[in-house]
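hiii so my PI (J.) wants the whole complex modelled not just the main chain, which honestly fair. so below is everything: two entries, each one labled with what it is. i double checked the lines twice but i was tired so who knows lol
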Amino acid sequence: EAGVAQSPRYKIIEKRQSVAFWCNPISGHATLYWYQQILGQGPKLLIQFQNNGVVDDSQLPKDRFSAERLKGVDSTLKIQPAKLEDSAVYLCASSLDRGQIRPGQFFGPGTRLTVL
Amino acid sequence: AQSVTQLGSHVSVSEGALVLLRCNYSSSVPPYLFWYVQYPNQGLQLLLKYTSAATLVKGINGFEAEFKKSETSFHLTKPSAHMSDAAEYFCAMILYSGGGADGLTFGKGTHLIIQP
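here's the output for the full assembly
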């Protein structure tokens, strides 16, 4: 079974530029999550989708971050414009359904963003 | 507010010694608790999870954790450390409401160092 795919794996941009990340969840997984992991900290949830609807985006900085999951499968996360403090690893995760704890969330390898 | 606290940002043990990584949680409702491991430049891998069944949970790679409600703790242990256990370990929590599971709330992580 293929895991969660993310691209690109690494990205370096200048501040005030725009950047987008892509995530393809495990086939059949209804719930998709984006997390931000700043160096030295645990991941922080940015947004949670159930199919193509947003369940929770309370910690998403909406003035610069946006995310979509138009067809309920893959998702993109965009930052426009980027700031230095956005340097982090962006992790995508998916789970079978929000209503089930088992078997849990599966994580992709992440995209490491460096903002100069 | 819900939170996860990991005591000790770095833990160093000798190969063959007991591994003990501490995790305490705070939540208004009974939580589901997880331990994840992260190797350099890789995504998060689930070690084990507590979902209100047995309080002693066994996971992969010889790790186990015990849920203690009275102490609000979920410490991770392994009887004998191996060099391959060197990694970052994250304790995490989910609150499961009637509408389903929310995103994970992570601790800041503990870097496990294995001395030869």
